[in-house]
Specification:
It is globular and about 35 Å long. The chain is of the alpha+beta class. It has one domain: Histidine kinase-like ATPase, C-terminal domain (Heat Shock Protein 90), CATH 3.30.565.10. The chain is built from three helices and seven strands; from the N terminus they run E-E-H-H-E-E-E-H-E-E. The two termini are 25 Å apart. The chain has helices at 36-47, 54-71, 119-126; strands at residues 3-4, 22-30, 80-88, 91-98, 107-108, 129-135, 138-146. The strands form two sheets. It has a five-stranded antiparallel β-sheet, with helices on one face. Strands 1-5 form a two-stranded antiparallel ribbon.
């Protein structure tokens, strides 16, 4: 049975609090699989090859953009995705916003041995924090990476209470 992701109450990583983040790059890309490579290139250029978590950031960006162009209305003709990369003292933040889907809720699947279906499980495993926001027919999925290593279990994030479309605690 697939686990369901929930919005997060991690206020440090909340992209809505961008005044606390320095935006390194932002782009709107066509919602087509061919642009997943471009998204990886943009993140690599924004954070630089010397960033200690560059490989993880590029991999997780690839997973989120692939999900957006596969499962959302962004894949329709003229559909787009928005990509944003930011940094702060907390680390790195990457957010992918698509044109929403019928499900409205990203779902973590575990498909051992399958070539697809494990993207959010990978994000859950490798990111120091992640979540999503669904509002007005758009869905933003984001992840946060600490500047160096993952926090200790006692400091680790918790995916907790859901939010309404307005972003207020339900």
């Amino acid at each position: 049975m697939p686990a369901e992701a929930t919005d997060t109450s991690d206020r440090i990583a909340d992209p809505a609090l961008l005044p606390h983040w320095l935006i390194l790059g932002r782009a709107t890309l066509p919602g087509q699989p061919a642009y997943v490579r471009e998204a990886r290139r943009l993140v690599a250029a924004a954070i630089g090859a010397g960033h200690p978590r560059a490989d993880t950031a590029i991999l997780l960006t690839s997973e989120l953009v692939t999900n957006a162009v596969t499962h959302s209305r962004s894949r329709w003709p003229d559909g787009t995705i928005d990509l944003m990369v930011a940094t702060a003292i907390y680390g790195l933040l990457v957010a992918v916003t698509d044109e929403g889907s019928d499900s409205n809720v990203p779902v973590i699947r575990s498909s051992p041995g399958a070539e697809s279906g494990n993207g959010l499980l990978l994000v859950e495993t490798l990111a120091d924090g992640w979540g999503f926001r669904h509002s007005r027919g758009r869905t933003m999925v984001w992840f946060r990476l600490c500047a160096t290593e993952r926090p200790k279990a006692s400091q680790d994030r918790a995916l907790s209470r859901p939010f309404t479309d307005a972003g207020n605690a339900a």
